[in-house]
Amino acid sequence: MIDIHSHILPAVDDGAKDMFEALKLLHLVVADGVTDQVLTPHLSEGHYEESVNGAKAAFSLLQKAVDDAGIAIRLHLSAEVMISHAILKFVEYDDMPWIGSWEGRKAFLMDLPPFNLPFGGDQLVSRLVSKNIQPILAHPERNYEIQNDISKIKPYIESGCLLQINCGSLMGDFGATVFKAACDLLKTNQVTFLASDCHNLTERYPNLRSGMKVASDIVGETAAREMVTKAPGDLIHGVKRL
Ligand SMILES: [Fe+2]
């Protein structure tokens, strides 16, 4: 399996606090059956360049520690970027830590704030898609407005967004409302990727296989498996879909 969303890179955001925790998390990731782990630290809007450079430095250290420890995992560096018009500036650098590409468009994970949907968010998606960039919305089921009215996701889908939902949402870790929103998005075939979004060893741990099993009960095993294998594989390797 391939996990496209995690906060395992040590001491760069609210994820793993140090190398010890990062390596313990990666042992759990491997035990869960993941072969490729994408590291997606939050990028800070006001400090884009520093955040990217800090993540690159932390990635080199983590890769070396993983090699030294002999952990059988392929690591990939990307990011989770909060939705904002500043993204248009980031992409001009072309130093964006892309997650891969989708149908020829360079792709990245885009975070939503927990409560309100930002004004003009769907228009930002349209502008990005027109620049041949593919935003993937990270865990839209955790946004309060979407939880309470699932149709609020529609303008984002129509503008060309793809959706990634969290395994923890499907396991009830964020409560009944988030669970229902995640199930509804799956039932209506709006989800392309499942991911762990793991942060730590306690509440937000590697859980891709458990989430995939819950998704199997809703969309069937073949479709659920695709969300953790072929779809993320095509994304990180930039394979065009038939
Ligand atoms: Fe995240």
Q: How is the CATH topology named?
A: TIM Barrel
How many structural domains can be distinguished in the coordinates?
1
Mean pLDDT: 95
Order of helices and strands: EHEEHEEHEEHEHHEHHEHHH
* Count of DSSP strands: 10
What's the helix count? 11
Give the CATH H-level superfamily: Metal-dependent hydrolases
Shape: globular
Rg on CA atoms, Å: 17 Å
CATH architectural category = Alpha-Beta Barrel
Give the class-level CATH name: Alpha Beta
Briefly, what is this?
The protein is α/β, with parallel strands linked by helices. 44% of the residues lie in helices and 16% in strands.
Describe what this molecule looks like in 3D.
- It is a single chain.
- The chain is an alpha/beta fold and 242 residues long.
- It is built from eleven helices and ten strands.
- It has a single domain, classed as Alpha-Beta Barrel (TIM Barrel).
- Helices cover 44% and strands 16% of the residues.
- The longest helix is centred in the N-terminal third of the chain and has 22 residues.
- Fe (ii) ion binds next to loops.
How are the SSEs placed, and which strands pair?
Layout: E1 2-3, H1 19-31, E2 36-39, E3 42-43, H2 48-69, E4 74-77, E5 80-82, H3 86-93, E6 100-102, E7 105-111, H4 121-130, E8 133-138, H5 144-148, H6 154-159, E9 162-166, H7 167-170, H8 176-187, E10 193-195, H9 208-219, H10 221-226, H11 230-237
The protein binds fe (ii) ion (FE2).
